[in-house]
Prior knowledge:
Elements: E1 5-8, H1 18-33, E2 37-40, H2 54-65, E3 71-76, E4 79-83, H3 95-107, E5 111-114, H4 118-130, H5 146-154, E6 160-163, E7 170-175, E8 179-184, E9 192-194, H6 202-212, E10 217-221, H7 228-238, E11 244-248, E12 251-252, H8 268-273, H9 278-287, H10 301-307, E13 318-319, H11 322-335, H12 338-351, H13 357-362, H14 364-374, H15 384-387, H16 401-407, H17 412-424, H18 431-445, H19 450-461, H20 469-491
Parallel strand pairs: 1-2, 2-3, 10-11, 12-13
Antiparallel strand pairs: 3-4, 5-6, 6-9, 7-8
Helix pairs in contact: 1-10, 6-7, 9-11, 12-14, 14-20, 16-19, 17-18, 17-20, 18-20, 19-20
The protein binds glutamic acid (GLU).
The site of glutamic acid (GLU) has 8 residues, from helix 6.
Amino acid sequence: MSNVRVRFAPSPTGFVHIGSLRTALYNFLFARHNDGKYILRIEDTDRTRFVDGAIENLIASMEWAGIKHDEGVFVEDGEVVQKGDFGPYIQSERLDIYKKYIDELIEKGYAYYCFCSRERIDKVREEQKAQGKIPKYDGYCRSIDIEEARERIANGEEYVVRLKLPANKNIEFNDLVRGKVTINTNDMDDQVLMKSDGFPTYHFAVVVDDHLMEISHIVRGEEWLPSTPKHVFMFEVFGWDTPTYVHLPTVLNKDKKKLSKRQGDVSVTDFKDKGYLPEALNNYLALVGWSPESNEEIFNMEELIKEFSFDRVSKTGGVFDKDKLDWVNGQYIRETSLDDLTQLTIPYLKNAGYIDDKDVENRYDWIKTMVSTVKENLSYIAEITKKVDIYFNHEISSGDEEVINILQGKQVPTLLDVFREELEEIDEIDEEFAKSVIKKIQKKTKIKGKNLFMPIRAMLTGQLHGPEMVNIIWVLGKQNILKRIEYVENSILNKNIDKEK
Ligand code: GLU
């Protein structure tokens, strides 16, 4: 067992962004690659953002994704439980620990009580902004004597605790992705570490916990890079070893902007609900910001663990390309056995009203064949309902000009007559019939090639492209095809359809 200990430390806001899943994944891959430990800690000190059930949700998302942690917060039989020697792993249960360390920091002279009202702070900020300065706390309470401060607190005055940064000191740290980072304390703010509600801020809790939980590498999104100097300063003044930092490039959309809810799917549950396969999502997400040595793009989890390193994580944002994800997911769908795939599609097909429990019980093979006809073209499971729509809806809209033109070809009435004759000779379509019927129609009518195939496909599916005709015929069955022939005869042939442009 190595000394590598990493953590994923989400705030339970009820929503797991796809970028957070990538952070979790990189932590996980790094831990496994190095035979280390991967910890899940809950950072819930911002009580205004707390959402009921969010921890359960978050852990369910991680479980679905197959990113398993070794230590920290788990859900068992619906209950939130904690496991490991460094607990509690939920920050709101560690308040006494933070209290102890904040007192130590005050004692050492690196933190101070601040009694400024919100109004005063807002006013100072406004003034600074008006002067074109970057707003920050003006240090009004820095020099209040500690005894006086304690008295004011005893008298019931509201306060926060702030970090006391020395003037003009360079803070330096090394980031495995960013390289050496230096910032001067003159450009930093006296961060609030303890709020008036007695809860620490993220900035304080994260330092105390990463130290006490013996975290070796802090792997997180680059939005935390500007905060890191404050954290490093605290590690130093406490006299603690600073962990190694790894700031990951932000997950961007194709326009190189932050991937946000407004543009559609961004939460893990969105992708789960659409029927992306967790293995595929992990595979694709791994590539958003990291590149393997080879040009390969398909990696299972084991291969990712073997290949992954921070050396090949890029400094600039990783673009989340949904088309690429669809492609990767499609590859995994193709690799899924037909039985498993059928099982995965059943809830979606039921939901669309295309099948019910009886069909699952009595016509499972038929469902399977139907799924097999579209397997090659499926990008994600929810797409199944759109792809198999051809088997359930045969109305042709007046907007489908090409389809209508083909169905109004002069050879079509003969084709339909002969197709009907063939159907009337059998009880139900079997494989043999499905395979031979088009040939038979060709022989009888002498119509061949496009003139034969296109109208039949259009009549059967209302579309000009799609699964192989043999499969379509088999899945539709005799009665459905008879109905479709009749529909085309009554609604399309010889009709003057006012086609929409
Ligand atoms: N609680 C922070 C978040 O939700 C974690 C940041 C960190 O990993 O230090 O992003």
